[in-house]
Amino acid sequence: MKYSKATNYALHTMVYLIALPKGNTIGVHSLAEMQDLSPTYLSKILTKLAKGGLIESTPGVRGGYKVSKAKDSISFLDVIKTVEGESNLFNCSMDHHEGCMIENVMIEAEQNMKDDLAAKFLIEITNKMDEQSINNIKGKAN
Amino acid sequence: MKYSKATNYALHTMVYLIALPKGNTIGVHSLAEMQDLSPTYLSKILTKLAKGGLIESTPGVRGGYKVSKAKDSISFLDVIKTVEGESNLFNCSMDHHEGCMIENVMIEAEQNMKDDLAAKFLIEITNKMDEQSINNIKGKAN
DNA sequence: ATATTAAAGACTTATATTATCTGTAATTGA
DNA sequence: TCAATTACAGATAATATAAGTCTTTAATAT
Ligand code: SF4
Ligand code: SF4
Fold first, then answer.
1. What is residue A95's predicted lDDT score, i.e. its pLDDT?
2. Class of A5-140 in CATH
3. Are A27 and A64 in contact (CB under 8 A)?
4. Bases along strand C below 7 A from a protein CB
5. Which of A14, A51, A52, B99 has its CB surrounded by the most CB atoms within 10 Å?
6. Closest chain B residue to the Cα of A114, Cα to Cα
7. Is the CB of A40 within 7 Å of strand D?
């Protein structure tokens, strides 16, 4: 059981987007280049984040992506939920779920993780980025 | 990201083994039948649990499996760790991990889940099984 | 108009999970 | 000793999911 690479890419991308000056956008090409991955693949992930309401996009010349919420309000959980989906880590395929105690235990444990992830904000990561990286990103903004 | 079916099978199997009278063993055939799955596949999972020290096996006629620790000491985490392995949910493939703050956040969140799973014991599930199920298992002991 | 950008869908490839098949070794009991 | 029973190991196959590519379309600014 592992988080997908897509989650990794999404988290890093969000950190970059948060580092952008307010209102600026950056294209998927630059974002992919910084993470050394294919733009088309990252594009899918960005579309997911956009549909999830975390970022917004503008097509066309000088278009790109920017965050669509207050930068200090975006939690790790927000990103992970959007990319990985909402379903539970443990899901039994049987159909007599009512009152299942095994599921209850698993769901409760998972909730502890989620609570923690909901209280951790990406801006904390961005705030600790070094000056050079920040300037690098700003330089790539549209 | 999901827990594997193997984890589900392992948890149920452990509940059954804990329900057995102390010292009794039960074969993989019966355990698989109760969960409606292939004995050979379950066998692999049981071997893993045995190597992990949670259960012990005796081959040969009237052999089978039994728990190898105090029944009230076996936690959900014990089982999950044995089946799913020890690696972290989030693992970045880059090689500059030192002091990575993203990883720190993820690992800490995961630890909250693990702490909870380590405090939940399978015997609680067994204790709440109905009489009929318990007797069914006892009847299949060797 | 044209260049640039995101979005969408079909498709392929890679990887992990799930499952089966076959054979071997250990143990019991007749 | 012999036969039945059981766990164990390894190869293989089947399936599901994730990861990544390719191509086309649509929107936008200059
Ligand atoms: S008891 Fe719960 S986990 Fe077990 S088979 Fe039923 S629903 Fe699934
Ligand atoms: S900062 Fe952390 S998560 Fe990001 S690439 Fe480096 S090691 Fe991986």
1. 83
2. mainly alpha
3. yes
4. 3-9, 17-22, 25-29
5. A14
6. B109
7. yes
Is residue A68 a contact partner of residue A53, using CB atoms and an 8 Å limit?
A: yes
Residues of B in contact with A2 (CB under 8 A): 1, 87, 89-91
Predicted confidence (pLDDT) at residue B142 exceeds the cutoff of 90: no
Q: What is the pLDDT of residues A51-102, one digit of tens each?
A: 999 999 999 999 999 999 999 999 999 999 999 999 999 999 888 888 899 9
Each domain of chain A, given as residue ranges in start order, spans 5-140
Residues 6+ apart with CB under 8 A from B11: A102, B76, B79, B80, B122
Q: Which residues pair with A57 in a beta bridge?
A: A65
Strand D near-CB residues (< 7 Å), B 89-128: none
Our CA-based measurement puts residue A30 at a distance from the nearest CA of chain B, in whole angstroms, of 19
Q: What is the pLDDT of residue A72?
A: 97
pLDDT value at residue A80: 98
CA angle B104, B106, B111 (to 5 degrees): 95
| pLDDT greater than 90 at residue B95 | no
A69 Cβ under 8 Å from any chain B Cβ = no
Evaluated on CA atoms A37, A80, B45, B42, the torsion sign reads negative
Lookup: tokens for B138? 């006892």
